[in-house]
Amino acid sequence: MTILTDITTLEDIKLLVDTFYAKVQKDEFIGPIFIEKIGNRWPEHLTKMYRFWQTILLEVHTYSGSPFPPHKQLPVSKEHFAQWMEIFIETTDSLFLGPVAEEAKLRAKNMAEMFNYKIEYFRNITENLKL
User: Fold this and answer.
1) What is the secondary structure of 8-44 as a DSSP string?
2) Fewest CB within 10 angstroms: 11, 24, 40, 44, which?
3) What pLDDT score was predicted for residue 115?
4) Gene3D superfamilies, from UniProt (predicted)?
5) Which residues contact 94 (CB under 8 A, 6 or more apart)?
6) For 10-130, which CATH class?
């Protein structure tokens, strides 16, 4: 039996990110969207995700930028974000246990909700401009 510990190091972040995105790529519902968008730039994307989560969870400020713009035009809906969250929670719970792991799930949930809201908002504006 493996005893789970909390997320405390960059290596923990890499394990979480690598495991999560390996599952995402295999997922029949959201995998094709990620694969089409990222193409052959997975190493670059994963490195960016390491820095993003390291900044958020470990307060080591290695990420700068705005995470929303690359997602703005994705063909996704609330159901896609729900699947993303299900995979994220399952991955986190299978690897870690503790307050930082809980914070990761909360931050992911908040981000998914915000991204979904903003994507819908921009989609509605675009549709209204066409009328």
Assistant:
1) -SHHHHHHHHHHHHHHHHH-TTTHHHHHHHHTT-HHH
2) 40
3) 87
4) Globins
5) 19
6) mainly alpha
Q: Residue type for 36, please? A: E
Closest CA to 76 of 123, 28, 126: 123
Tokens found for residue 61: 């400020």
For residue 2, name the pLDDT band (cuts at 50, 70, 90).
confident
For 98, phi and psi rounded to 5 degrees? 150, 180
Q: How far apart are the C-alpha atoms of 26 and 130, rounded to whole Å?
A: 36
Tell me the CB-side half-sphere exposure of residue 91, using CA atoms within 13 A.
Answer: 23
> pTM of this prediction?
0.90
The predicted structure's pLDDT at residue 129 = 64
pLDDT band at 77 (very low <50, low <70, confident <90, very high): confident
Is the pLDDT at 131 greater than 70, yes or no? Answer: no
